[in-house]
Structures are given as C-alpha cells and as structure tokens.
Amino acid sequence: xxxxxxxxxxxxxxxxxxxxxxxxxxxxxxxxxxxxxxxxxxxxxxxxxxxxxxxxxxxxxxxxxxxxxxxxxxxxxxxxxxxxxxxxxxxxxxxxxxxxxxxxxxxxxxxxxxxxxxxxxxxxxxxxxxxxxxxxxxxxxxxxxxxxxxxxxxxxxxxxxxxxxxxxxxxxxxxxxxxxxxxxxxxxxxxxxxxxxxxxxxxxxxxxxxxxxxxxxxxxxxxxxxxxxxxxxxxxxxxxxxxxxxxxxxxxxxxxxxxxxxxxxxxxxxxxxxxxxxxxxxxxxxxxxxxxxxxxxxxxxxxxxxxxxxxxxxxxxxxxxxxxxxxxxxxxxxxxxxxxxxxxxxxxxxxxxxxxxxxxxxxxxxxxxxxxxxxxxxxxxxxxxxxxxxxxxxxxxxxxxxxxxxxxx
Length: 409
Prior knowledge:
The protein is α/β, with parallel strands linked by helices. It has 8 helices and 26 strands. It has 2 domains: 6-139 and 283-351, FAD/NAD(P)-binding domain; 143-281, FAD/NAD(P)-binding domain, CATH 3.50.50. It has helices at 45-57, 88-91, 96-102, 158-170, 193-208, 232-245, 333-351, 391-406; strands spanning 6-9, 20-23, 37-41, 62-67, 71-73, 92-94, 104-108, 111-115, 120-123, 126-129, 132-135, 140-141, 174-180, 215-221, 248-251, 255-259, 262-265, 268-271, 274-278, 281-282, 300-301, 314-316, 321-322, 364-369, 374-379, 384-390. The strands form 8 sheets. Strands 1-2-7-4-3-11-22 form a 7-stranded mixed sheet. The chain has a 4-stranded parallel sheet with strand order 15-14-13-19, with helices on one face. A hairpin with a 2-residue loop joins strand 17 and strand 18. Helix 1 packs across helix 7 (333-351). It is globular and about 70 Å long.
C-alpha cells in the first residue's frame, strides 16, 4: 500500500475479482458500528454529483463508484465539436485525481442486475455489496422509429458529434434536417435543448464558412410548440429565430420513418441529406433484469426524496428516475445536481437512523447557444424568464464548463 492508501487489482487477476482501484478513507460507521458502504452507479453528472455530496456530508463513509470507465464525458460541450471549438480531448476528463481526493473505490464494469433487494450490485466485474445504493446510470434513447439508423443521435456521445462534424465537412450542399421527439408515456423524458443548439450552431458555422446559401436547414417536431418545456416565451423566441435565420419548419406531424434521403411524417415528407434526431428517453436495459418499480415510460419510480418506493435504502438520481413534479421538469445536469444533494442527505439519514426527508427544487436553467452568442432561459414553478441572445451568454456557458470540469480535474 502506498502512502496515499491506493490498492490496485490488476486485470490479470481471476475474472471473478472486481477490476478496481481502491481508495479508502477512515471508514464511516453505521449505528451498529460497522463501516457504511455506499455504492453509486454511474460516472455521469448525477453519479459524480452524488459522490461529492456524500463525501461533503460524511468524511468516513466507504463510497464505491461503479462505471465502465473512470472518465467524465462532458456532453453539453459536444455542440461545439462540429465547428471546431471543442475536441474529444477537451471533453473527456480522467477521474483518477477526483477519486483519490474523494477517497472513492472505483469498480470498472457494467451493471447487469441487482440481488438481495439492492444490497448486491451485479456487474461484469463481479458482485459489489452495499448498505445503501444510488442509481445514476442515465437513460437510454428509444430507437423504435423505422429507419432510425439513417439518423445521427447527437447526445449518444462524443463519437456522434464527431460524425456530424465529418459529415458537414464532406457535404458541398443539400438539406440538413434537425429534430427531436419525446417518450409518449413519459412527458419529462425528452432532451430537446441540444437540438436547437445544433440547429443554430450549424447555421452559424455554415455562414462563417461562406457556404450557407448551398444548404437548406429544416427543423421538424411532432408538436406545434417544440420546446414547450422551456416555456411559452421560449417557444416563440426559438421559432422567431428560425424564421430570422431562414430555417424551414415542419411541425405538428407524427413521425412515420426515416429513409436514407428523407424524413417521412403523417403530414408529408421532405428530402434530407443529413438527419440529426433526438428520440425520447427510457430506462436502461439492465433495469429489465431487476424487480425495481418502473414508470409508464420505463424509468425508475422515485418519490420527492429520491427514494425508490418499496425498496430499502435504494435511491435514484438524474435521468434514470421518474420524479413527481411538473411535466416540464428538465433532464439536465443542473437538475441532477439538485437531486443528488437531496439523495445524499436522505441516504445518510436513513443509514444513521435519523429522520430525513430532504426534497429538491425543480428548476430549469439553460443557455441555448449558437457558437458565438446564446439565449438564457430560466424556469421555476413561480416564474419563467428569457433573456435574448447575447455574446455574454455564450461566454458564460463556456465559463460554466470550465468551472464544472475543474471539480473533477
């Protein structure tokens, strides 16, 4: 063991052994006097925020993080990959230093199921036991639309944004179609904001490159009010911005299918040489191997305290969960941060035998960026503000990225 307290199990160990880096602190104690073992699933915004909140509240708890890789992929920044403002290297943050500082045990593996009421997590690296569990493995995109293989789904990751960049570089002209849809059984399981950013960003990029006149941009959505979760002011602003930029819209028609060269809806079809499409979200495939309660849209049921109903000391944070609240509750990093704080407070209270019923506020904050300027949108149950496009907001978004990633570097 080194002075830093680091233990490493190499991949040459028997396959039943967890492939992990073990970073121990003093060991938190339960009321029974044994170390409290907390397992967090997922190394995205929700999982990492939960780790920070747990450690901030308890310096002794033994925290285990399970994820395929000890990396944070900062997906909000992929909107700048097509224009060259960001690269893969800019957006992938190795978590070794963060895990060391937070004294977190890392298990490199994919979750396959649960056992013993959630007290055992089954992974491709072996079983991981716990006294309390936080599920933060994100969501999964619904890929049921016929011909969806002809579209690029940007938020699937950095590789998808790189495909968009490469396709744009190779195109000399044509029609670019950008759209999104939701989960009909889960109103909150939609992520449309990035699609507006890709739309406006591509428009701005093509203008900078002096070739916008060779392209037609079309925005499509099955709703007549795309982005209505952002609020009515935002819908009007976004549609007015499309009109100002000469972007054609195809709204209010249910999607039927994609072909290699067109988008087909119940209200007609139109040609498309490049299709960017964000489908609605549902739960992870590994949920099906458990008896965890599910929402109609396939996410994990959660109460206002981030607890999974009917499960002892099992919590959910971020995109994995279906939470009570308004139908505009966002799926975004800021919301995951708020839920992580509530989950951490309630988890530690539960394992220590204290009454804990922390809740989270519902708040949408986003900057719809267009490469060199952006629009700020803020929504709470009490108010809905929109501040028009300005260069300040573009740089504020970049500043937020820098500050957010600094926590993990």
